[in-house]
Amino acid sequence: FGPWDPHNFVFAALSALGRRRPFEAGGDVVSPTYVPDLAHVTLDLLIDGATGLWHLANPGEISWAALAQ
Predict the structure, then answer these.
(1) Model-level pTM?
(2) Which H or E run includes 30?
């Protein structure tokens, strides 16, 4: 998710809650990645000349419901 994308879960949750409208979110556990964080670590890998396959994700996990809260 990112601040420039109006088509993601966080934007939808903030929009609904900001308008005081109901918003339903599941309890399944996810590990959302913030796009600016992903871009920064990708640029660091490029600058360092890293090669190979990398798994890039933010640490931890959270449910969709907790993320909306």
Answers:
(1) 0.67
(2) strand 29-30
SS3 41: helix
Q: Which two tokens stand for residue 26?
A: 């599941």
Burial class (CB in 10 A: 0-12, 13-18, 19+), 27: exposed
Angle, CA 46 vertex, CA 42 and CA 51 arms, to 5° = 100
pLDDT digits (tens, 9 = 90+) for 26-68: 888 888 888 899 999 999 999 999 999 998 877 788 998 898 8
Contact 62, 27 (CB under 8 A): no
